[in-house]
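Researcher: Let's walk through a ligand-bound prediction step by step. First, I give you the protein sequence. Second, the SMILES string for magnesium ion. Third, you return the three-dimensional complex as C-alpha cells. Ready?
Model: Ready.
Researcher: Here are steps one and two:
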Amino acid sequence: MTVPETAAAAVGRALAAGGVRTAFGVVGSGNFHVTNALVEHGVRFVAARHEGGAATMADAYARMSGEVGVVTVHQGPGLTNAMTGIAEAAKSRTPMIVLAGEATDARSNFHVDQDALAAAVGAVPMRLTDAARAEEQALEAFRVASRERRTVLLNLPLDVQSAPSRPLGPAPAVTGAAGPVRSAARDTTAQSGLATADDATAGSGLAAADDTAAESGLAAPDDATAELRRLLAGARRPVFVAGRGARHARRELEALADRTGALLATSAVAKGLFRGSPWDLDVSGGFATPLAAELIRGADLIVGWGCALNMWTTRHGTLIAPEAEVVQVDLDPAAVGAHVRADLGVVGDVRAVAAALTGPGGAAPGYRSAELARRIRDEGRWRAVPYRDESGAGRIDPRTLTIALDDLLPSERVVSVDSGNFMGYPSMFLDVPDAGGFCFTQAFQSVGLGLATAIGAALARPDRLPVAALGDGGALMGIAELETVVRLGLPMVVVVYDDEAYGAEVHHFGPHGHALGTVRFPPADLAAIARGHGFAAVTVTDAAGLAGVAEWLKGPRDRPLLVHAKITGERGSWWLEEAFKGH
Ligand SMILES: Cc1ncc(C[n+]2csc(CCOP(=O)(O)OP(=O)(O)O)c2C)c(N)n1
Ligand SMILES: [Mg+2]
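Model: Step three, the predicted complex:
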C-alpha cells in the first residue's frame, strides 16, 4: 500500500519545485518532515546551531544570491530564537520564507502567538490551513515572498502537517484561485504596487528598509519624469545617491550620469555599485570620505535612486545643502520625503526611470572636470586620508589593521559587517569589487548578526573569499556559528576587532562621566576559542602580526581563519558621533 504524502512533505516538495535551492534552519520535531522533504527534492539544507543564525544566514543568502531565502524552525522557541534575524529581513524587505511548526493547542509548552510575533516585526503571517491544498498554499507563500518582496512566516500547524496532502492521484494544478488564508492578526503589510515583477527571483534581495524601491514594471508618471528631466538639464552639480533599490540599475544610472555630468554615490547597503567608475564617491553618509562629503554638500541637485536618504545616508540631512534640490525616485510613494525634504518624487522603477531620461544628445559637463577626476582618484578612498597611527602597547590601530588586511586579502571578496563602534573600519577601509561584495544586515541595528551574515553570503558567493568583520561583543554573541563555518568547510576570514568592551556604549556614555563597568570585559582569548572550534587563528597586536594572515592565504585554506585583533580603543569613531544623534 502506498502511503499518502503528508501536507508537510507537500510543502517541501512544492517549494523545491518552485525554485528553492538552499534552506537554513535548526531541526526539531515540528519542522523535521518539511525540512526532509526539501532535502529529498534536491534542496541543500544548511544546519545552523542557533535559529538566530539560521534566519540571518537565509537573509544574507537571499540578498547575495537573488534567490528567495528559506529558513525552517521548530514551533515556539525555535521561532522566538529566530526573531531578531526575521526582523532584520523584514525591515530589509528580503524575500524570505520562514517555515515554522506551530502548536495550535494553547496548552502546549511550545504554544505562542506566532502570528503576533510575525506581525510585530513586519513579517507577513500566513498559515497552512488545508492539507489538501498544501502545495498551493506553499506556492502562495513563495509568491508573496518573491513578488511582494516580503519576509513571510508560513505557520505549519502540527495537525495539518501530518494530514494527507491530497488523495492519491495526479498532482493538482498549482494555480488555483484559493490561496492560503492570511492570518487575522494585524497584518502590517502595505499591499502597494510592488507585486509586479514577472520573474519571481529577479532582483530579489535588493530592497531594504532604508531603500524601499524594488524592481518592477511600474512606469513613472510622465509629468514627474519631465520635471526631473528639467532639473537634470538645469543642474550644474548633480549627485546621484543610489540605494539598494538601484542595485539592478548600474548601467542605466551610469549612462544618465554620463549624460548629465552627475557624480555617483551609494547608501551603505549598495556599497560597491559604481566601483570602477572615475566618478564613484563610494558611500554617502557617516562612512563618506571627507572628499565625498564635501562634494555631496556642494551639490545643487541630489537624486536619491531607490534610496531613502535616511539619517545615515545624509548625516541627519547635513550632507544636503539648504539650496539643493532633492529628488527621490522610488517604487514606494511613501518613501518620498520620509527622511529628508524632497522637492520632487518620481514613483517608478529606478532602471525604467533612468532609461527613460537618457535620450540621445550630447553630454553636459555638470559636476565633472579633469581636476575633480584627479581629486576623486587621489583622495576618494579612506586609505588615502592621512591619519596618525595610534598603535602601541600591544594594541593595533584599527585603521592600520584594516588597511593592511585590504592589501593582503584577494580583491574578489564578499565582506559582511556586524554592528558596533568598530563597524566603520571594515566598511570604509576594505574595498569591495562591486555591490555583490558587501553584505550589510543592519536595518535592525542588531549586534551579533555578522558571522551568520558572512555564512549566508559565503554560500551565495562561493567564488569569493568570505570576510566577516566583527566586534568582540558581536563575535561572542553569534559564536554558536563558528562550528558551522568549520563544518561547512568555508574558507572564511573572520576578523574580530577586540577592544574588550561594548565600545559603542563606552564611547557613547564615557564622555559624560558615567560608570562603564557594565560594558567593559576582561580579555578573552578569542584565538584559542576559535581553535577549539577547528579554526586556524592568529592574535594580532601590531602590523607584524599580520604575517600569519599572509601565511594562511598561501593555502591550502582548508580551515577558516580567525584574526583576533587587539585594537586600540581610546577614541570613539567619528561615524558613531553621528549615530548617537539618532538615539
Ligand atoms: C542585539 C543587540 N544588543 C545590544 C545592542 C546595543 N549595542 C550596540 S553596539 C554594542 C556593542 C557591541 O560590542 P562589540 O561587538 O564589541 O563592538 P564595539 O562597539 O566594541 O566595536 C551594543 C551592546 C544592539 N545594537 N543589539
Ligand atoms: Mg568591542
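Researcher: And what stands out?
Model: The radius of gyration is 24 Å. Residues 419-422, 445-448, 471-474, 497, 499, 501-505 surround thiamine diphosphate (ligand 1) (CB under 6 Å).
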